[in-house]
TrEMBL record:
InterPro entries: 6-phosphgluc_deHydtase (IPR004786), Dihydro-acid_dehy_C (IPR042096), DiOHA_6PGluconate_deHydtase_CS (IPR020558), ILV_EDD_C (IPR056740), ILV_EDD_N (IPR000581), IlvD/EDD_N (IPR037237). Gene3D superfamilies: IlvD/EDD C-terminal domain-like. GO terms for cellular component: cytosol. Residues 70-384 form the Dihydroxy-acid/6-phosphogluconate dehydratase N-terminal domain. This is Phosphogluconate dehydratase. [4Fe-4S] cluster binds at residues 158, 225. It comes from Variovorax gossypii.
């Protein structure tokens, strides 16, 4: 570890390494054992090999079996329900073509499910969302367990898809693996204008047609949604971990570079990118404790999605690494906020890209010693290579990729330097107290709302809160407690539909906050929200003791979350239980009963809500 690394970053990394020593050593030992085997078509029985290559062209069969050429497994999350994933339809043909040009082969090893949280927000389908991550990880394992591959390419962008692919890939950590993005859609109706219409609709000032017109103007074509939510945070973290071709995260699907960058991903995973050949390292070796810390730092520096305080705990665990919310909190104390991208500002990811994008952020963090420079990446140039910007150079017939240092700061309303940040600390805070442990994203919360003290109003569902808002029952200072929303209760759905009504109340001058054992969308921001409360109510957590009228203090300055009651009175308070009728209702319909085993086995939010441990 470099001596120039920030002391807190170094200390957090050292503690993670020490905490993870036994688990990580066992993981690396298993990787070494798998890597020592003969390649698949040499190791397997003849019938196995024949099945594996029966569906590919004769020339490819010859290469795999006789020439013993590298065979790349493609795991794709393509479907055209997700605008971000629709561009992937033609990627396998591009990848196979490029592989053949390099004397290699590629096969679609398998597809993974990919649900759109934008479609399922506020519906029963959202209760499958978090666990779809683990299902995607298992589907990735099913694809790669054909065990005929020398490398892998992961095609995925959105919320649970990238963490799921990454968890699955790390369980096949012996394979060199590159993630292949597809890019954001061009900017449509601005995110701030869209949110304004949503607030007006919540007040009855805009009808369904007006709201639909606004939403259709915002989400209008192929590509990732343009706000800095979980999907785009995924892409930022993959850049910071060195798992992309450098600089590919936010190149739009229609850009001339997009296909060239996809072909470059093939060259990279085969170790043929650039002037000299190199070995693309196995992903299990690349993703060590330094790599995980780099991802955490990038998340904090960009005010990224709170979902990653769950997902990256699970990702790290898949690599034999143990992290927790204290690690995020300690890093947040020293990592400055370098971006203002919606919901933490008015800019979208296209404006972020135009103002330096991930390359600028990574360059600033590495130079300041806030990211580990001495890490492995999919390329030979290390993490500093990810501070460069790709472009096409040469004549139209022979255009080639080149990387140049990121341009000087373009727009200081969108991106800043470490010397002049938006904030000296990161955008996430750990809260603890007699209500449990929780996290809050403060990067977009107004400064005068960092501390809220108000009476509680308790709800057992987000629908109940919306009903109370519509009835005018929340026109006052209030802390809305929404419980029974954790992993074991109903799969921990995002409660994004609560943002417009709570924003309306805050806009009227009321001091409001949300406290919940559920999640908020990566696009939520300006309402103080203590989320992921652990232990959850369904596990007997303190939220099950809260009653209407209890005075609650959410203090993101001091890092506390508490009911203001005498200790003995609070200790004697009876713990409520979810009604059997509600439990049955939450567990059935639209496929929810199929996920009952995952709900039973889920760990806490702070442990990554993993259902596979």
């Amino acid at each position: 570890m470099s001596s120039s690394t920030n002391p807190t970053v170094r200390d957090v990394t050292d503690r993670i390494r020490e905490r993870s020593h036994g688990l990580r050593s066992a993981y690396l030992s298993r990787l070494a054992e798998v890597r020592s085997r003969d390649r698949g078509s040499d190791r397997m029985g003849c019938a196995n090999v024949a099945h594996a290559v029966a569906g590919i062209p004769a020339n490819d069969k010859f290469r795999v079996v006789t020439e013993r050429a590298p065979n790349i497994g493609i795991v794709t999350a393509y479907n055209d329900m997700l605008s971000a994933h629709a561009p992937y339809q033609g990627y396998p043909d591009i990848i196979k073509n490029e592989a053949r040009s390099l004397g290699a082969t590629a096969q679609v090893a398998g597809g993974v499910p990919a649900m759109c949280d934008g479609v399922t927000q506020g519906t029963p389908g959202m209760e499958l969302s978090l666990f779809s991550r683990d299902l995607i990880a298992m589907s990735t394992a099913v694809a790669l367990t054909h065990d005929m591959f020398d490398a892998a390419l992961m095609l995925g962008v959105c919320d649970k898809i990238v963490p799921g692919l990454l968890i699955g890939a790390l369980h096949f950590g012996h394979l060199p693996t590159v993630f292949v993005p597809a890019g954001p859609m061009p900017s449509g109706l601005s995110n701030s204008a869209k949110s304004k219409v949503r607030e007006q609709a919540a007040q009855g000032l805009v009808g369904r047609q007006g709201l639909l017109d606004a939403e259709m103007a915002a989400y209008h074509t192929l590509g990732t949604c343009t706000f800095y939510g979980t999907a785009n945070s995924n892409q930022m973290l993959l850049e910071a971990m060195g798992l992309h071709v450098p600089g590919t995260a936010f190149i739009q699907p229609g850009d001339a570079m997009r296909e060239t960058l996809t072909r470059e991903a093939v060259r990279t995973v085969l170790g043929k990118a650039g002037e000299a050949e190199f070995n693309c390292p196995p992903i299990g070796e690349m993703v060590d404790e330094r790599c995980i810390v780099n991802a955490m730092v990038a998340l904090l520096a960009t005010g990224g999605s709170t979902n990653h305080l769950i997902h990256w705990v699970a990702v790290a665990r898949a690599a034999g690494i143990l992290i927790d919310w204290d690690d995020f909190s300690k890093l947040s104390d020293v990592v400055p906020l370098l971006t203002r991208v919606y919901p933490n500002g008015s800019a979208d990811v296209n404006e972020f890209q135009a103002s330096g994008g991930p390359g600028l952020v990574i360059g600033e963090l590495v130079d300041a010693g806030l990211m580990h420079a001495d890490v492995l990446t999919v390329r030979s140039g290390g993490i500093r290579e990810f501070a460069n910007i790709p472009s096409l150079a040469g004549e139209s017939e022979e255009k080639r990729l080149q990387w140049t240092p990121g341009a000087a700061l373009q727009n200081d309303a969108v991106t800043r330097t470490v010397a002049d940040p938006f904030s000296a600390t990161g955008g996430l805070k750990l809260l603890s107290g007699n209500l449990g442990r929780s996290v809050i994203k403060v990067s977009s919360v107004p400064d005068d709302r960092h501390v809220i003290e108000a009476p509680a109003r308790v709800f057992d569902s987000q629908a109940a809160l919306q009903k109370a808002f519509t009835a005018g029952e929340l026109e006052r200072d209030v802390v809305c407690v929404v419980r029974w929303q954790g992993p074991q209760a109903n799969g921990m759905p995002e409660l994004h539909k609560l943002t417009p009504p709570l924003s309306v109340l805050q806009g009227k001058g009321f001091r409001v906050a949300l406290v919940t054992d559920g999640r908020m969308s990566g696009a939520s921001g300006k309402i103080p929200a203590a989320i992921h409360v652990s232990p959850e109510a369904a596990a007997g957590g303190p939220l099950a003791k809260v009653r209407d009228g209890d005075l609650i203090r959410l203090d993101s300055v001091a890092g506390t979350l508490a009911v203001l009651l005498p200790e003995d009175e609070w200790a004697a308070r009876e713990v409520a239980t979810l009604s059997e009728a509600q439990r049955i209702a939450d567990g059935h319909g639209l496929g929810r009963e199929l996920f009952a085993g995952m709900r039973r086995n889920a760990l806490t939010a702070e442990e990554g809500a993993c259902s596979w441990l």
